[in-house]
């Protein structure tokens, strides 16, 4: 059940990960956007590791601790596995964000889910407004499917939720999502810069 990528090793979490999980889950972003308990105690981390081991046994949920060369950097899981479908969830510790780890680990799990596990559909759910998570899901090929009004309960209150899906036959190239800036939005800027660059060079030549 170990998955390897260029920089990361994904394994079921063990007791050796408890301190790092406890530390990472103090992060307000993890507490804001995921369903981890808040406040998050060391006992919560211990129970989490116990529970994930039980769920690996029963097959209802597969959770991997993400490690880079320095140690634990995140968690990624397939939840509510049933009837050929599952829900993907993830967090990356604050210090390790923005390096592509979420996308790298997520891609390995999607490959595993739609490959050897032969799942037919993956779902992604998030609190509406979680742009970082949405962009990660979009980069994995998920397609936006809508808003579930008051569809999630996090941090003690119900909020709207975004839903996206990926099915086994999908081309996994990222597509635009209506709630995110378009993927092509950089293009006109690049074109403007290119035109500006040419104009500047032309101006320089004229002088
Ligand atoms: C969401 C999260 C896992 C992203 O992890 P990461 O390792 O930083 O993500 P990556 O570096 O692989 O980036 C993946 C994509 O997300 C985008 N992204 C990452 N952080 C972002 C941010 N703060 N704001 C906007 N976009 C962001 C990246 O630009 C990239 O998108 P692109 O391919 O369109 O450029 C991380 O921010 C996190 O743990 N957040 C708190 C917990 C959480 O929200 N979990 C998800 C609950 S649904």
From TrEMBL:
GO molecular function: protein N-terminal-serine acetyltransferase activity; protein-N-terminal-alanine acetyltransferase activity
Keyword Cell inner membrane: no
Cleavable signal peptide: none
Ranges in coiled-coil conformation: none
Gene3D superfamilies linked to this entry: 3.40.630.30
PROSITE patterns, per database record: GNAT (PS51186)
Record-linked InterPro entries: Acyl_CoA_acyltransferase, GNAT_dom, Ribosomal_N-acetyltransferase
Keywords: Transferase
Domain of life of the native organism: Bacteria
Keyword Repeat: no
Pfam family, one: Acetyltransf_3
Recorded GO CC terms: cytoplasm
Domain N-acetyltransferase: 8-164
Protein known as: N-acetyltransferase
UniProt lineage: Bacteria, Bacillati, Actinomycetota, Actinomycetes, Micrococcales
